[in-house]
Write a structure and sequence with these properties.
Layout (H helix, E strand, L loop, with lengths): L2 E7 H4 L4 H12 L2 E8 L4 E7 L15 E6 L4 E6 L3
Antiparallel strand pairs: 1-3, 2-3, 4-5
Length: about 80
């Protein structure tokens, strides 16, 4: 299953800027969100979900973490797996 987790800073989630809203909406529209938790200490929201861009993992494997990357010139959003 293509499950992953990622975080978005609350300043982007709550932004009134139209370009920030656009890219946040673009990122979230790619993922079927299965869990969402606010992290007030780190001022972000943690998401877990299923996405075609996430690597396929086996049941029981640890869920990998991804960064959300915004490519303004190409007008797109991608997810990149964080390698530990």
């Amino acid at each position: 299953m293509r499950v992953g987790k990622f975080k978005i800073e609350n300043r982007f989630l709550n932004s009134k800027r139209i370009d920030n809203k656009f890219y946040v909406q673009m990122a979230l529209s790619k993922v079927f969100i299965t869990d969402q938790r606010k992290d007030p200490v780190n001022k972000c929201t943690n998401f877990k979900g299923i996405c075609d861009e996430f690597d396929d993992i086996k049941d029981g494997d640890e869920v990998p973490e991804y960064t959300v990357e915004i490519h303004k010139k190409e007008n797109k959003v991608t997810f990149t797996r964080i390698q530990l």
